Structure formats: structure tokens, C-alpha cells
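Aim 2 progress update. The chain analyzed this quarter is reproduced below.
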Amino acid sequence: MTTTLLNLAWLIPVFPFLAFVIVPLVTYRNRKLSHRLVVGAIAVAFLLGQIVFWTAVTAPEGVLPFESESIHWLSAGVERFKLAVYIDPATAIMLFMVPLVCMMIFIYSVGYMNFGTDQVDPRYSRFFAYLSLFATGMLGMIVFNNLLAFFIFWEIMGTCSYLLIGFWYEKKYPDPNKITPKEAGLKAFIVTKIGDLFFMLGLALLYAEVGSLAYGDIFSHETLEHLATTGFLGTQFPLAAAIALLLFGGTVGKSAQFPLHVWLPDAMEGPTPVSALIHAATMVSAGVFLVVRCFPLFAAVSEFTHIEPIHMTIVAGIGAFTAIFASIMAVAQDDIKGVLAYSTISQLGYMVAALGIGAYVAGAFHLITHAFFKALLFLSSGSVIHGMEHGHHHAHEHEHEEHEKEWFNPNDMKLMGGLAKRMPRTFWPFLLGGLALSGFPLFTAGFWSKDEILAQAYTASPVVFWVLTVAAGLTAFYTMRQLCLTFAGEPRTEAAK
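Predicted C-alpha cells:
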């Protein structure tokens, strides 16, 4: 019975993919049917994900990791690549989080894209098709059993990020220095491809040495010992460390770590549901999940040799620096989504630093908790932006021609103020998300996951501990600054009134 239920994981990415295919071919002109199909598909994926998660949690000892019967899915010369479902604790917890957060974002998108009003987006059905493909990419990356499939679905997500960040590609700004959605999408695509190049090199080196990209082969005791004790290109540097660093290059690009962080703040040019999807459930989570998935390879040098794991020091250093650097940048932002963008970079730095010091469970725990409260913050910020746009149009509805030439930025927190009284249904969720992000003690998930990272950093690396502690203080500061500028005091403009 247990293995039968775990085999349902095959179907989890299939339903969103079918929705992606059907919407442009069949339901494109029927907006209601399009969003119902996409939301229904992710809801089915969510239910299947819950079944797999709880089955994995309650499985008898020895069942996990579970690998289903494989199918031949790709031939290259004499090589035939097999594909199967692979369920372990990392897969199970991601299948709990990803479909749930995606489903909430998809439901929110129906209202955000103005369904049922005369302001409905003309490419409404296309937007939902892209969302469904985005979810397919993340879910496929999670459930299958080899790094080649992982990379293919990874690239699907990269393509979807380009399509969705630049969704409003015709949008222009009076300020020529402000990046447009079309340019932001292209920037995200190109910058992440730099990281993908390192990822590909890591896969090539791994395949050349092992002859397989299946997790069962790569993470076997014999393979890990061989990779840890073999020198890279005849040097003393372990081959496992070289492959791990190349794979980590993919994480640096996808999870916006320094120096490939530059694409993520500009990704805010896409619709707010896209920002939530990228920052919480899919794109940036994928990079950290790559390290989580391949952690046995990263830890092999420490396990099988007495060589100093320099590659882990590099991972922890990049993560810690990114965490504090992005926190400082977030303090200086006036754009409500810009603060959250740099916040995401900082929190991803936390996760990467945790994995670099060997705090595998703490890093994965923060990945899950962060997804929920960051999605809440982005969706709440979208409500604020919609409210400011509505307020601006209402305040100047009798002076439309005079004000239509003036560009109004609904994201600017300096133009807000006093919204707690006018938008209480938005304020309370934003406050709860802000408290979780700040790590408010005892009753927020963010406190427990950050506390676990800091506790392990305290014993593993004092430098990483103090850097992350300062970053945590800055996180609380910029979050409260954002809350005060947006919701406290009196309205500073007619739009906020």
C-alpha cells in the first residue's frame, strides 16, 4: 500500500503540464475556464503531494528512499537514460510546500489580473498557462530520480521566469534609467544562464567519472568515497569538491547569491503573483534545493578524508556575505517590492550559509518556513499596490487628462502611510509575515528556523555566526521600517487617503 501511494508522485507534475497544454489550444478565449483549469490542476497536484508527504512521513523504516520502476525516456548514442520517481525526506517536505504555495498564488492571481472587470488583462489566459508551466518545472525537478531530469526542469523554470518577468513587455517608463519588464526578463534569463553553465560543467564531470546521473548511483557509499579520494586533474583537490563547486555555481545563479544576485531585484517588474512565485515556491528555492539534494556529495570530503573541505568554506562564505550585503541593501529601498526582493536574497544567503557549515536540516527548514511567509508578504504587497493605484485614479478621476502624463509609482513607500486603517485586511497578514521574517520570538516559524541556523553556526564558525546575527538584526530593522512607512502614521498623498 505504501509503495502504491508513493508511486502517485508520477502524476504530480503531469496535471499542471496538461493544463499548460490545454489552455492555449482549447480554452484560450474563455478566461474563466482557463483559470479554473489551471487552479484545478494545481489543486490536484496539491492533494497528491499531501498523500505522498503523509505516506512518506508514516512509512515504515527502510522504505525511504523509495525509487519506483524506471522507464527508458532518452537515448544518446549507446546510452539510454532511465527515469523514475525518487522519494526521500527532502522530496516529501518539498511536495508539502510547493503545490500548496503555488495553489494559493494561483487563486490570488485571478483577482490580481482583474478577472471579471473591464480592466482584465488581455493576455489573461496566457498568464495562467505560463504559471502552470512554471509549477510543472518545479514539481518535475523535485520528484524525479536523476540530475539530468533535474536540469531539464530547471531550464523550464528559467524560461518561464523570462516569460513571466517580461509579461508586460510593452510597458515603458518616463524615466529612461528605469529598467522595463522586457529588459528585466532578458536580464534574469542571461544572468541565470551564467550559473547554469557551471551546473552543466558539473553534470558533465560527474557523468564522465561515474557514468550515471541517477541519485542511487551518485550517492552510493562506493561512489562518494571514490569521488572524495580522487584528485581533480591530478591535483590534491578532491574531485567531489570540484563537482560540488560547479553544481553550486548553478545555485549562485538561480538563488541570486553574490555576485549573480543582480537579476532578482529587477524581477519585480513582473506581475506581483510572479514575484511571489519566484521568491517563495519555485525559482530561487530551486537553487538551494539543488544543494540540499546533492548534500551527500558536498559532505563526502569531510566524511571520507581528512582534507580541509575548502569548498564548504566557500559555500558558507558566499552565503554569509550575501545575507548581510542584501540586508544592508534592503534598508535603503523605498520600493515596497524592492525591500522584499533584497530580503529574499538575504534569506537565501542564510540557507546557503547553513548548508555550508553542514547545518543541512536547519537550511532545509528555513527554506520551507521562508516560502510561506515570503509568499504572504508578496501577496500582501500586491494588495497594497492595487489599493494605491485605485486611490490614485479615484483622487484624480476629474483631472484625468492632466495627470495621465504624470507617472505615479504605486510601489513607492514614501507615497503611502496610514494604510493600516484603510486596508486592515491587508495590514494584519502583512504584519504576521513581517514578524515571521523578523524572527519574532517563540510564535513565528521564522524564529525557529533562524534560531536553529544561528545555534549551529555558533559551534561551527564564529565568523559566520556573527555575520548572520548582524544580518538578522538588519532584517528586523528593515521589516519594521517597511511596515511603518506603509501602514503607520497619516497618509502622505491623496492616493493613500
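The radius of gyration is 23 Å. The mean pLDDT is 90. These observations will guide the mutagenesis experiments scheduled for the next reporting period.
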